[in-house]
Amino acid sequence: MADIDYLKEKFLSDISQASDLEQLNEVKIAALGKKGAISEELSKLGKMDADERREAGQIINSVKQDLNFALTERHATLAKQALEKKLETEKIDVSLPSRPSVHAKIHPLSRTMEEISAIFSDMGFVIAEGPEIETDEHNFTALNIPPEHPARQEHDTFYLKPDDSGERPVLRTHTSPVQIRTMRSKEPPIRIIVPGRTYRSDHDATHSPMFHQCEGLVIGPNIHMGHLKATLIDFCRSFFGVVELPVRFRPSYFPFTEPSAEVDIGCSREDGGLKIGAGNNWLEILGSGMVNPRVLENCGYDPSTTQGFAFGMGIERLAMLKYGIPDLRTFYDSDLRWLHHYGFMPHDVAGLHTGIV
Ligand code: PHE
After folding, report:
1. pLDDT for the residue 346
2. The pLDDT value given to residue 354
3. Whose CA is nearest to atom 10 of ligand 1?
């Protein structure tokens, strides 16, 4: 039994000297593991005679118990030490300044489109869409702009390669073709807005070859000029947030509306600054009119029973006026400093609250 006493002393000393849980586990395996020294002693019992086996068995089992006890105790001590060390090293210094957080910003164009959509959806309009590559028919002819019509020149159209039928598709020059698409596929009543991209070959501080418009179309049996005026006055006042905003309808011409009117809002231009809602100057902000009977006919409607009004506005222009952004080209520069200056926090847009003034 000299062996077992020696083993007991050796393992007890190894246990007390184990400096971490990993080392302790190694001692445990060396002593009590399947091939451990104590297990080996137990396996020798089989070869002994009965008396010898009883005596040796008792001794080995009591050593096993002692070692187990010592292992459990040491485990508790080492685990506690490990936890203390962890708490010590992972201590949070609450006096450290926080890391700067970078917020994404909503582009002023997205914000303006949300605002426009929110105001019109309060009035019962729904959003419609159409393709940016359009047929000549939808973009021009059906809108009462036949080939050789002078209005075609004003649009500085981007033409694409002719298709198999010899027709040249165009990048839509306005959102008005969605009027045609909607009227040809739906019965009145119609009350839509069409925010979307449009294209003209033009580039300076107030024009970009790609820009955004928002079209509006209302068709029904008794729609008249009074509805057009009320809708657009309410829109302008709500968008600019000025209850008494002066709004003026000035006779104009568009091939697809008759009569047509451009809408101006009151402003002042004193001291080099532009102030909306005050003073005695006017600023043009959108085009509108009663849908031309020819356009209604082109869409299969009977102009003697059905009529309506349409309007179109430039979204960049509205954003520039409302948020004081001087150069339209900067909208598309992807300059983060610009976006941080003119952009909006996401919750500003999510919580957009509008009402009709
Ligand atoms: N489509 C016109 C333009 O791009 C705007 C407009 C739309 C005018 C609807 C009247 C009615 O200038």
Report:
1. 79
2. 47
3. 288
Atom of ligand 1 nearest to the CA of 175: 1
> Which amino acid does the sequence have at 283?
L
Q: How many CA atoms lie within 13 A of 20 on its CB side?
A: 5
**pTM here?**
0.72
Neighbours of 173 (CB within 10 A): 23
Ligand 1 — pocket residues by CB below 6 A? 174, 176, 215, 254, 257, 287-289, 310-312
Q: Compute how many other C-beta atoms are within 10 angstroms of the C-beta atom of residue 97.
A: 5
Tell me: pLDDT of 1 over 80: no
Calculate how far, in angstroms, residue 197's C-alpha sits from the geometric centre of ligand 1. 14
Sign of CA dihedral 293, 296, 300, 304: negative
Residue minimizing CA distance to atom 7 of ligand 1: 312
Distance in Å, CA 287 to ligand 1 centroid? 5
Tokens 């909208």 sit on residue: 331
- Helix (H), strand (E) at residue 80: helix 50-89
pLDDT at res. 357:
31
Q: How many CB atoms lie within 10 A of CB 15?
A: 21
In 135-243, beta strands by DSSP E: 170-171, 190-199, 210-220
Phi, psi for 211 (deg, rounded to 5): -150, 180
